[in-house]
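Sequence in, structure out.
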Amino acid sequence: MEVGMEAPLANVGDYSTRLKSMTGGDGLFSMSFSRYDIIPDKAYKELQLTN
């Protein structure tokens, strides 16, 4: 079964580990670049604070 969905890269950092845990090691996934998008204001402000 193949399901397509989009998620920000920052939100999928531990997805592989969580998927393996949920599926007993049998789950598979792949990622591919979709597009650049405008960063939300909150995240932009947080980035400004780190510089």
